[in-house]
Specification:
This is DUF4371 domain-containing protein. It comes from Aphis craccivora (Cowpea aphid). The protein is of the alpha/beta class. It has four domains: 52 residues; 60 residues, no CATH class; 104 residues, 2-Layer Sandwich (Nucleotidyltransferase, domain 5); 80 residues, no CATH class. The protein contains 16 helices and eight strands. A five-stranded mixed sheet has the order 6-5-4-7-8. Strands 1-2-3 form a three-stranded antiparallel sheet, with no helix packed on it.
Length: 397
Amino acid sequence: MAKRLNNSFEEPSTPKKRRIRNELHKNEKDKHRKQKYRVEWEGKEEFKTWLKPVKNNIYRARCIKCNVDFVSELGCLKNHLKSKNHINATDATPKNLMSMFTSAENPIDIQIKTAEIKLAAFIAEHCISFSDMDHLNDLLKEIIADSKIAKGLSMKRTKVTAVIQNVIGETYKEELSEMLKKQKFSILTDESTDIGSVKTSCVVVRFYSGETKHIESVFWELHDVFNIKNSNEGTEPIVQPTATGERLFNFLIKTFTDRKIPLDNIIGFASDGCNVMMGKNKLVASRFRELCPGIVILKCICHSAHLCASEACKMLPRTCEDLARNIFSFLHSSSKRQCTLRQFQNFLDLKPHKILHPSQTRWMSLEAVVKRILEQWSALQLYFNDTYLSQKLLTTE
């Protein structure tokens, strides 16, 4: 009796438990063989849009449209394909998923985009205000009412700004960068001299163009000198940005390294002769000599000529230059005086040109000022004689 009880405890009570423990006899085992997932099924037309394998289980497959998984047997795949849930899920999604993101582009749309790019280029080339596009866009639609391209134009100041900066400007910069990667070039830079709160530094590259067979000077970059975001001093912001030689040099180099242009292609550098640019102790020119051995450094010829002319003018009487400045100061702020001068110009059959103002940089305007005074000399003599006799002003004497 005890033996029979012991045998009952040792043997599994049901075939299910024996099957789980893999203790079935060869004749008792299920003869159905499990089917592994086959990647070849994904290439079939009826399965390729929805069938995927189940991760970490080679015996199951998954439908990405119904979000369910099942046994990876061909019969199960076909049954699921004909199921009501799968048909409804398939009809609810587009046959081609890429059709959600791409579509056949209409030829008229391409012509509209081309027209918008050309119009933006025209605005930039002729220095027309971007705000004018708010009115020009609607005006073109009214003038060319029978044109499908004009009706499709949708570009105002925001879009024209984006097209010029991100399409035309970026494409131009990429083409120029590819050109500079393959040939030698020189760098020319100078800071702005206008009166404003923003101090900018312009960078121009000069190289030999194989297309035009000429040496060309092309705009490269415009940099805000005192902009903290453009600093190359690290991640910490600069409290008081200054136009030091190191900062200007780092900016120049960064504009080329960002475009992956070899610095070995730089063979020349030119700028004005200020100490920051042409100084010997770790300033812009000296750093270029260390980085690019054999580079040619030149000062701006115009600035050098200005210094020479300024020193030469010191030997001339000061009254000559003061006369040019005083004539302009006496006339430019009074419309009545200008009208009276115009009468003398008409009387002497002279062209009614205005008197020019001498700028601080003599070589930029002094020659033109002297030529204009000599051209209008007889009219100026009559005008000041008449003014002195009638008003007895000390300035006209």
